[in-house]
């Protein structure tokens, strides 16, 4: 892969920073989104003066940070996460918020930007999406990203089956 504009979330981590280095060495333009909760600035020091590298200090849990990082990007390598099984047991709320909530925000931000590129007059509104029932969200949005997801049945559908 050459001459692409790439986003690496978690780019200051061990895996992310090695990915950033490889992508830059292959003549790509790289945006790195990291909040430095586990990543290290020293992992990025060799790239800071590279004109093809841009660091955004932000968080995948912040929708605006996701939109900013994704702007004009062609490919995303999503490496941002809170690893460590012991940490996830000690603090499952934060781990879930980052690893699942942040991932979902990246998906929706990417979808919104793709939608705007296809039809600039149709902005996807995350507030409206949040008001849809889970069944609608799963069928309407996530099947595009993860392949087919078995839809849930609503309470009404379950009651109809039992009649």
Number of domains: 1
User: Which residues sit in consecutive blocks of at least 5 with pLDDT less than 50?
Assistant: 120-124, 127-155
- What's the total count of β strands? 4
Structural class: alpha/beta
CATH architecture grouping: 3-Layer(aba) Sandwich
Question: What topology, given as strand order, has the largest sheet?
Answer: 3-2-1-4
Mean pLDDT: 79
- The CATH superfamily is NAD(P)-binding Rossmann-like Domain
What is the gyration radius calculated from CA atoms? 18 Å
- What would CATH call the class? Alpha Beta
The rough form would be described as globular
Into which percent range does the helicity of residues fall? 40-55%
CATH topology: Rossmann fold
As a percent range, the share of strand residues is 5-15%
Number of helices, where a helix is a run of at least 4 consecutive DSSP H or I residues: 7
Question: What is the ordering of alpha helices and beta strands?
Answer: EHEEHEHHHHH
Gap between N and C termini, in Å? Answer: 56 Å
- Major sheet size, sense and barrel closure: 4 strands, parallel
């Amino acid at each position: 892969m050459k001459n692409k504009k790439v986003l690496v979330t978690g780019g200051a981590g061990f895996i992310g920073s090695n990915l950033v280095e490889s992508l830059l060495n292959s003549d790509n333009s790289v945006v790195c989104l990291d909040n430095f909760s586990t990543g290290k600035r020293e992992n990025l020091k060799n790239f800071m003066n590279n004109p093809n590298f841009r660091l955004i200090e932000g968080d995948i849990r912040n929708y605006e940070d996701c939109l900013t990082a994704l702007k004009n990007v062609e490919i995303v390598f999503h490496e941002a996460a809170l690893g460590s099984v012991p940490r996830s047991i000690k603090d499952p709320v934060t781990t879930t918020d980052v690893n699942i909530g942040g991932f979902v925000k990246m998906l929706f931000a990417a979808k919104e930007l793709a939608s705007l590129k296809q039809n600039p007059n149709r902005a996807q509104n995350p507030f409206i999406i949040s008001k849809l029932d889970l069944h609608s969200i799963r069928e309407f949005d996530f099947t595009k990203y993860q392949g087919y997801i078995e839809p849930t049945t609503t309470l009404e559908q379950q009651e109809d089956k039992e009649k």
